[in-house]
């Protein structure tokens, strides 16, 4: 019997619930009308529908939801504008009320801070404006413990010295909106092993600290008073662990997003047996997905089969005589069981799609995945796998992206490697070796890459040595099957555990504000009870208006057990890192949130690496991402002779 892995129920700290309540209380219900229309831009449209469904909005008297460029007039409806603070949005609002009022009133809510110049432009329609407010929701809630910051070409901009500063400025504005929404003024710690404040993490951390200080100066109610300890925030960038996102994931959510085409990690489109096209939202409101997304793939398949069997048993009866009441009960259960059966069938199809990637003619993919784990294991000497890699990259069942991915993992995990070895590997795989050096440029952020005339040396840093020692202890409890294909433990798991236990080393993670750090480390009075229920505290004193007291006394605040922890990764996070956060919440009963600029799969990080140093303007004119597999090749149509590789 496979049990559910759901770790989100019973806790009050869901980001989805917090942001949903914020929008309802501080935006929707601020407009006292029974007839409301919501107008959104493309960006805010995605924010709204990442946490609401249409029924929930209709229950709040939102009868219509339109894009802001719609020209339809509803003079009896009060308009709620939820838009980005841009000149385009402002002009659309002005046009709606400048000559003829298209709506009864304008109630304008911005995702973030709006400039005085743009506010000044709204004076022309001031008589029509009832509410003008900065809502501070400039981020996307992906799951109850996961948020993302969408910023175009963010990965390339972060790792490009010419665009880095502007990119970090833009990202910091969005992260500040998250902290403002949470009411958190955290103790910020950033990765900086040299203490020179030269890392990307340190630059970003100080930008964030400055904006936090400014927000506290202008808003007397920030941060919100709570009975809990100050939040801890860790900031690092992708260079701390480049290997992890390249590894194939064998847990359901990560594997599905790696192998299948799932839009934004949520929308799964598929074809059923009768040829009809269907789509399903894979989010926490979908019961099966919520239960099995963090399961190992074979466990997920077993769980779904059990659910299908349960549906079958509902209608099965050994009795020859069926009473009228039994028949009524079965009739009542039919619609419910049909829904369950359809959901189970969808998941069964997706799981089979994932597992087929590693079976039959594509058995090479399983061998590659096992080799990836061997390479990532610091206890192994990577040079002994060179001959195996040479054979694999000439296998026709691997596409160019997969070959390049394997080569990059090999290079990152090697202590030393010759330039000739890299050249020969790339030539035999028919891929562009310049992209390997682009990857090494990111790894250089840790000051551990030395490139001489012939040899590339990737030194072990103190942090890497520390992480490897921790991995040895944590890996002892892994199942054999899981340790074979998913034995890699990410730094996020290790570092967050250390922070929970108050053992995170200052040597690796510095504080932006020492006075705050000293305050956080000082002895504070512990709660009388290990678990503080909402109804035991006068929460209206401590909580923002949108975070209402719950009526469920079994729901409690995880900050009772210790301070909230926010992890933010510049350059993208993996599904494995997200899953490990949920596991830590379950293990320690702590409020842990993870966020990043994007969510990475092995495919998407390959795409990001490929586009580094590609001219941004030229990228915008073509849909480059759909052509990347072909683009990895060098003169693919020309025959190349296979060259032997000298071992170094």
TrEMBL record:
Family: Belongs to the STXBP/unc-18/SEC1 family.
Gene Ontology terms: biological process: vesicle-mediated transport
Naturally occurring in which organism (per UniProt): Neocallimastix californiae
Coiled-coil spans in chain: 361-388
InterPro entries documented for this protein: Sec-1-like_dom1 (IPR043154), Sec-1-like_dom3a (IPR043127), Sec1-like (IPR001619), Sec1-like_dom2 (IPR027482), Sec1-like_sf (IPR036045)
Keyword Coiled coil appears in the UniProt entry: yes
Domain of life of the source: Eukaryota
Lineage: Eukaryota, Fungi, Fungi incertae sedis, Chytridiomycota, Chytridiomycota incertae sedis
Keywords, comma-separated and alphabetical: Coiled coil
Protein's recorded name: Sec1-like protein
SUPFAM superfamilies: Sec1/munc18-like (SM) proteins (SSF56815)
Keyword Coiled coil carried by entry: yes
């Amino acid at each position: 019997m496979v049990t559910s892995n759901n770790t989100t129920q019973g806790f009050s700290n869901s980001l989805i619930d917090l942001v949903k309540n914020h929008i309802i209380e501080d935006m929707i219900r601020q407009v006292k009308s029974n007839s409301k229309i919501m107008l959104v831009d493309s960006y805010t449209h995605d924010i709204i529908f990442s946490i609401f469904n249409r029924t929930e909005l209709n229950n709040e008297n939102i009868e219509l939801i339109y894009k802001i460029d719609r020209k339809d007039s509803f003079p009896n409806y009060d308009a709620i504008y939820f838009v980005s603070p841009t000149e385009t949005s402002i002009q659309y609002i002005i046009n709606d009320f400048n000559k003829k009022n298209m709506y009864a009133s304008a109630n304008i809510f911005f995702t973030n801070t709006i400039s005085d110049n743009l506010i000044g432009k709204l004076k022309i329609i001031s008589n029509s404006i009832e509410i003008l407010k900065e809502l501070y929701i400039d981020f996307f809630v992906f799951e109850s413990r996961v948020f993302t910051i969408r910023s175009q070409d963010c990965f390339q901009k972060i790792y490009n010295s010419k665009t880095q500063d502007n990119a970090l400025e833009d990202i910091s504005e969005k992260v500040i909106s998250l902290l403002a929404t949470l009411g958190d003024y955290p103790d910020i710690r950033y990765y900086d092993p040299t203490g020179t404040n030269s890392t990307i993490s340190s630059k970003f951390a100080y930008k964030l600290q400055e904006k936090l200080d400014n927000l506290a100066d202008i808003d007397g109610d920030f941060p919100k008073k709570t009975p809990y300890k100050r939040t801890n925030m860790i900031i690092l960038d992708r260079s701390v662990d480049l290997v992890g996102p390249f590894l194939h994931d064998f847990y359901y959510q990560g594997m599905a997003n790696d192998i299948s085409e799932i839009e934004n990690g949520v929308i799964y489109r598929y074809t059923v047996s009768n040829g009809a096209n269907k789509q399903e939202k894979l989010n926490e409101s979908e019961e099966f997905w919520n239960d099995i997304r963090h399961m190992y793939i074979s466990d997920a398949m077993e769980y779904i089969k059990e659910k299908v069997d349960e549906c079958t048993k509902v209608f099965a009866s050994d009795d020859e005589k069926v009473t009228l009441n039994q028949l009524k009960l079965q009739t009542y259960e039919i619609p419910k069981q049909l829904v369950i059966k359809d959901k189970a069938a969808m998941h069964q199809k997706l799981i089979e799609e994932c597992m087929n990637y590693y079976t039959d003619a594509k058995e090479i993919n399983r061998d590659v995945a096992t080799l990836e784990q061997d390479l990532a294991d610091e206890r192994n000497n990577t040079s002994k796998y060179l001959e195996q890699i040479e054979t694999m990259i000439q296998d026709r069942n691997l596409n160019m992206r997969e070959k390049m991915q394997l080569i990059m993992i090999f290079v990152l995990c090697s202590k030393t490697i010759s330039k000739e070895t890299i050249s020969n590997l790339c030539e035999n795989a028919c891929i562009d070796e310049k992209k390997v050096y682009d990857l090494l440029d990111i790894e250089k952020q840790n000051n551990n890459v030395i490139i001489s005339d012939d040899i590339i040396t990737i030194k072990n840093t103190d942090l890497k040595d520390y992480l490897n020692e921790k991995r040895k202890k944590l890996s002892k409890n892994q199942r054999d099957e899981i340790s074979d294909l998913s034995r890699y433990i990410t730094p996020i798991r290790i570092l967050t555990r250390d922070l929970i236990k108050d053992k995170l080393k200052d040597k690796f993670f510095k504080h932006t504000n020492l006075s705050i750090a000293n305050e956080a480390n000082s002895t504070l009075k512990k709660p009388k009870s290990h678990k503080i229920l909402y109804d035991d505290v006068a929460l209206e004193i401590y909580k923002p208006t949108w975070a209402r007291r719950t009526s469920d006394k079994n729901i409690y605040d995880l900050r009772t057990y210790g301070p909230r922890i926010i992890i933010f990764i510049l350059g993208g996070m993996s599904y494995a890192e997200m899953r490990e956060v949920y596991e830590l919440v379950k293990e320690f009963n702590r409020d842990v949130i993870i966020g990043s600029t994007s969510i990475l799969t092995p495919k998407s990080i390959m795409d990001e690496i490929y586009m580094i140093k590609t001219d941004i303007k030229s990228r915008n004119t073509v849909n480059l991402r759909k052509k990347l597999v072909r683009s990895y090749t060098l003169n693919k149509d020309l025959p190349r002779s296979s060259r032997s590789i000298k071992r170094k």
